[in-house]
Amino acid sequence: xxxxxxxxxxxxxxxxxxxxxxxxxxxxxxxxxxxxxxxxxxxxxxxxxxxxxxxxxxxxxxxxxxxxxxxxxxxxxxxxxxxxxxxxxxxxxxxxxxxxxxxxxxxxxxxxxxxxxxxxxxxxxxxxxxxxxxxxxxxxxxxxxxxxxxxxxxxxxxxxxxxxxxxxxxxxxxxxx
Length: 177
Ligand code: PRP
Fold this sequence. Notes:
The chain is α/β, with parallel strands linked by helices. It is built from 3 helices and 9 strands, in the order βαβαβββαββββ. The site of 1-O-pyrophosphono-5-O-phosphono-alpha-D-ribofuranose (PRP) has 15 residues, from strand 2, strand 5 and helix 3.
């Protein structure tokens, strides 16, 4: 039977941090250049929706999908592109939007992959980063929260596809579900 996840970051805390990040991004990109926000499926959908709606600068939305091999075991760090952006991002300012950075392999791969499209710039936003799990060095320019080594769900994050649509970030034990 499903147990209700324990609240780690409340809906209110998320919304107020998302607003702060949106204000920072709106200030940083206030150059008249369109910003292309690239959401990484599936987990980023909620953060992308809230963050994009709170910006005060012109922006467009793209999605990208990847799959990673060897996750949760001895990670090879191999990431495979499943779906590329649809629009032309050459010469545009790109902001990759992630729900979580864990080992960092996915974000590192995406930065390199998107740079091959010759954008004007590539920056990164993630709602959550697992501070102690990094296996590669990767910059998160706009970070919501650092957390410990916990299994988190909600606000886009799932465990076996469950709990993605919770409005808060909760902690589960994988044996709960
Ligand atoms: C999660 C998250 C990142 C990646 C981060 O996606 O959305 O894309 O893992 O992990 P890393 O830093 O160790 O590379 P996941 O594979 O769970 O897919 P999903 O978003 O479709 O749930």
